[in-house]
Write a structure and sequence with these properties.
It contains 21 helices and 11 strands. By secondary structure, the chain is α+β, with helices and mostly antiparallel strands. The strands form 2 sheets. Strands 3, 4, 5, 6, 7, 8, 9, 10 and 11 form a 9-stranded mixed sheet that branches. A two-stranded antiparallel sheet has the order 1-2. Bound molecules: adenosine-5'-diphosphate. Adenosine-5'-diphosphate binds next to α12. Pathway: Metabolic intermediate biosynthesis; (R)-mevalonate biosynthesis; (R)-mevalonate from acetyl-CoA: step 3/3.
Length: 585
Amino acid sequence: METHRRSSTNSVRSHKPARPIALEDDSTKASDALPLPLYLTNAVFFTLFFSAVYFLLCRWREKIRSSTPLHVVTFSEIVAILASVASFIYLLGFFGIDFVQSLVLRPSADVWATEDDEVESEVLLRNEDARHVTCGQALDRSIRSLQPPAPIVTAEKVFDEMPVTVMTEEDEEIIRSVVSGMTPSYSLESKLGDCKRAAAIRREALQRITGKSLSGLPLDGFDYESILGQCCEMPVGYVQIPVGIAGPLLLNGREYSVPMATTEGCLVASTNRGCKAIHLSGGATSVLLRDGMTRAPVVRFDTAKRAADLKLYLEDPENFETLACVFNRSSRFARLQSIKCAIAGKNLYLRFSCFTGDAMGMNMVSKGVQNVLDFLQTDFPDMDVIGISGNFCSDKKPASVNWIEGRGKSVVCEAIINGDVVRKVLKTSVESLVELNMLKNLTGSAMAGALGGFNAHASNIVTAVYIATGQDPAQNVESSHCITMMEAVNGGKDLHVSVTMPSIEVGTVGGGTRLASQSACLNLLGVKGASKESPGANSILLATIVAGAVLAGELSLMSALAAGQLVKSHMKYNRSSKDVSKVSS
Ligand code: ADP
């Protein structure tokens, strides 16, 4: 099979060899209809306009000198008048409308500057950043209003439409082969040597096999080479998630604009309001308490006694140095910190914890663990390794071990919110917040038997930031463990608020952090890639930002609840008006 690269969108009709084209070239412009290139057409009309006007002015000067009435015009003058009017209309249409619209629709430069703190009675989230627009409207209005409305793709429409992808004859042959089962779908990338073409062919085959259209799922505009062998197998497109910005978050004396990828209305606006309350109160402080990724294999012996022998061996400080040397060979960044063991009969769970630099570290720690297990096999030949992960780690599952011992980065973040800010920005009182926190986040969660869930919605912020910055969103389970504390301070005037998060699992290298969009979001926070000054500094900073954003989110949601405005705000800004009317009817 041919393996040369080819654009997957070549037309069947042309049968011409593929021509590498830029993505922008795919879009048809109105100017394509002109007989001449755009710059030549513009030049022609400019010349025509100024020549005609010059000619008319010369003629009128002669007429004035010879006392000929101006309204008596010759044929050449009529032609000149028509030419100048026509070219004027062309030039106005081309340059004039965009210019006028850009003046009329230019957005405000400072979204916080137009705040009107006096209007207390307005709905909470409309007031919170005083943009005087509803959630989602605080965007560049000039850009949006100049573009035609995007077609709305409804679920029914997606399923009604038939596939429309146009392929070459050779592509068509491969599609038929995939549909018939002759060519495995997973082998397309290696067979074609072109990831984009492989995705297009797989997508088309899938549509034919299932009879369902994927027309709402974009294919173009994504670098499929960048995910090969590391992020996603058998791609057929990509899902678009909007990214909003909350901030500036003033944390440890520096400002951060926090990217949040979410489809939950009001989440970004609410976090933004929390950021504002923190900023106006002098900022938040966050401290890293612990930094260690964990992996816990399960090994089995014939007797519990032998399992206990290994436990004692691993926990003997004299053996630690040797084990650390073996473990650390996995990477120049890996540093073994501890091994904690738990026995269940003759089975032993070994929880290795290690520093992993700027990587989230699951691969790194797993490699280190494998090194140690291989090493131990010499002294403990009767050790049967059942699994490199025995769930005592514990990854992507709620578990007390993470809540108590920590996993990844353990961070505490605090702020003292000025009483006036609580009233004016958060629209509630210190007293109400403290009471609600006690009864909801502490007592309510205890009544529910919560595990690490002593908070209002930490996982909302964690997940949105994780998706935006290329973290593993499945780790939101333990990364969202959080206890939110609120206390009245300074004689009851101000509010002390803190979030304690023992297992924030983040990295700035590896995994999804390398992808273009996610990398751009990391760049925005100033934590892209490996830290040049000190390995691990970027991922630690990212963890503290996550905690700071959670603090902001907790403040804002708790305030909305305390003020009794949550349902009202969400019905107004998080549901379409259609749904609201349905509810009311
Ligand atoms: P993870 O362990 O989070 O799954 P990967 O193993 O995919 O991450 O990525 C970590 C890789 O990045 C390792 O190969 C490591 O050597 C490299 N690396 C480069 N710079 C750093 C750094 N500052 N900290 C950690 N790893 C780094």
